[in-house]
Amino acid sequence: MxxxxxxxxxxxxxxxxxxxxxxxxxxxDPQRRRVVTGFDDLPESAHDDLRPLGYVTGxxxxxxxxxxxxxxxxxxxxxxxxLAVEHGGTMADVCKLVQYFRHLHHxxxxxxxxxxxxxxxxxxxxxxxxxxxxxxxxxxVSRLFSYEVMSGGAAIRxxxxxxxxxxxxxxxIIGEWVxxxxxxxxxxxxxxxxxxxxxxxxADYEPQVRFFIDCPPEEALxxxxxxxxxxxxxxxxxxxxxxxxxxxxxxxSQRSRxxxxxxxx
Length: 265
What we know:
Blueprint: E1 13-16, E2 19-22, E3 28-29, E4 34-35, H1 44-50, H2 60-86, H3 107-116, H4 120-137, H5 139-150, H6 157-179, H7 188-204, H8 206-212, H9 223-237, H10 244-248
Antiparallel strand pairs: 1-2, 3-4
């Protein structure tokens, strides 16, 4: 029996048009009907996935701290992956995930586990979408953050300290892509800086964006169009663009003030 066999009587997922909506997924072993609490609850294939990330070391003093969140993350992500495949997709097609954490420091090992299951292109696209969704859903928070940074960041340094593990985990993953030549050489932390800047721009400089694409205040910005542009810009920058981006980017709106030259590709 799979670790991710559903135990509820309701559907694990339903397809509506081009979208597949999944029900809530919890890290429970269906055979023992018990919450997953550590690496011993996982199959050997999971251990093979997690060892390269520095988990499942066999050292109690090391494994005991991160085993619960890492093991539970693997189970949940594996179930999402199975459901995506059952409906004809992959993890690259997952456009939105909602996660709940008891502690903020759990986010770093979850992110590390999530990105291990993705190709560089999938992970970059996922990060861009996460950051852009936050920008669109919480623009005032984004602007407040920027104002605090421009004021010296005195009050926000505590938040930076809490998120440092997450950033360091992402840096290590990107560095591994570079080492394996899966992406073009780049300093990992600067790739993150570029993505943060590109996505947050649409909150901090929203009036400017609206002016140059001729989008009135009462009309919503085209989130999907913007997301496609940023993803393809970043992927091309690290050597992953190729022809895949051609299908992502819609034709420029005729309403845009910033029209491209006639000979533009």
